[in-house]
Structure formats: structure tokens, C-alpha cells
Amino acid sequence: MARLTRQELKKDEFAERLVAVKGFFAHNRRRIVFGGGTALLIVVVVVGVFLFLRSRQANAADAFSKALATYHAVVVAEPPPTLTLQHFKTAEEKYREALNQFTDVATRFGRHRQGQWARYYAALCKRELGQTMEAEQELAALGGESDRDLAAVAKMALADVYQKTSRTEEAEKIYRELESNPTATVPKPTVQIALAELYQRTDPSRATALYQQIEKDYPGTAAADQAAKMLRGSAQ
User: Fold this and answer.
1) Thinking of the domain 1-35+65-75+82-168, which architecture would CATH place it in?
2) Which of 43, 98, 184, 221 sits at 20 to 30 Å (Cα–Cα) from 190?
């Protein structure tokens, strides 16, 4: 699954704010030039708001980055004294802490992109902690978001929940939808690999045919390598 970096999230939203401020000055240029004190006050207010948003955006990026670091931290039951990386003794401990952090980011920065993605990762933490119903509800809600990249990864995670709860038909329906509407975060070969893995349990011959198609359509890619590996495994 594609990961969003702090820099990508920060850059996108900062660029949007900058365009908005530039647009304001372009639209009100004559007023600013000839409007005297009132126009100056408007400029001060706009610049102040812009700086506030920039500061808040940086805070959102920092908080989200820390939560991501927790989510991807290593789990070591008996960490050596030389281990300096963030670590936890159990997976449950790690995901509980990550859930707390992502929930905080989503609460404080809900209107920012980081806050929206924090909801997704919080749902993944709930899934890992066995809170399946809560995770499913949140992923289903995120699947309807206007951000196609966010909605796509949420749907992929939701399909995984469906598979693990023996709802293969619902999972297949989601995969078919994503296959027809790929995104940057969930490209077509990624969906097809997941779909082939589903077929391995329900229709092995169909899974083999799909792996062969992936290997043919995407030579030299990670998806093709995975398909080839699965085909070798099924042949043994």
C-alpha cells in the first residue's frame, strides 16, 4: 500500500493556500493600491490568516509524522540496549499508542489532509487491535470521501476486512470497482494481485489465470514478480 509522506501532505495543502492568497490579491489589486487604510487593514488580516494557516499546517504535519513513526515502529519483545529506533514490546502496545496519536491528529486537524488520513490509519489500528466493527464502519465512511486517493485505500482495507470475516462476494465487488477506477494510491495491478489472492481461496484456476495475465501485462514490476512467485508456489 502506498504511503503518504509528511512532505507530500504538507506541500499539497500549502500550495492550495498560496494559490488562494494570490487570487485574493489579484482580484482586489485596485482596492489595495487605492483604498488607503482600509485596504491596508485587509492586507494585514489576509497575511495574518495565511501565516496562521501555515503554522497550523506545519503542526498538523508534525503530529501526523509522529503518529506514522509510531505505526511503523518495530516490535521487539526484548530490545537490546543498543536499539535506538522507536520500538514496542508488543504489537498491541504499538497499535494502541498509534491509535491514540492518530485520533488526536484527526480531532485537532480534521479539516486538514493530515487529519483525514489520520482517520484512515486510526481505522487500521482498530483493525489490528481486533476492533473489527469500528474499523469497518470508519473505512466504509472514508470510502465515500471526495479525495479519491484516500477513498481508494480505505476501500482496499475494507475489502480486507470483508475477506477476513468470510464476506468474499462483498470483497470481490470492491476489488472490481477499484480495478475499473485505479488511483495513484491503489493502481490496477495492486488491485488485481489482491483479487487473485481472493480467488486462490474460492477459485484456484481463476487465480492462476489472473496471475498469468498480471505477469504478461506488467513485466519487470513488483506486481509481475509477485504473480510469478505465486504461480511457482501453486505449481509445487
Assistant:
1) Alpha Horseshoe (1.25)
2) 98
Average pLDDT value over all residues in the chain: 83
CA angle 8, 62, 147 (to 5 degrees): 40
Q: Given pLDDT bands bounded at 50, 70 and 90, which one contains residue 58? A: confident
Q: Which of 31-45, 95-109, 204-218 has the lowest mean pLDDT?
A: 31-45
Three-state secondary-structure class, residue 90: coil
Tell me the pairing of strands 87-88 and 74-75. parallel
For CATH 1.25.40, the residue range(s) in the chain are 1-35+65-75+82-168
Confidence class for position 16, pLDDT limits 50, 70, 90: low
Coil, strand, or helix at residue 233? helix
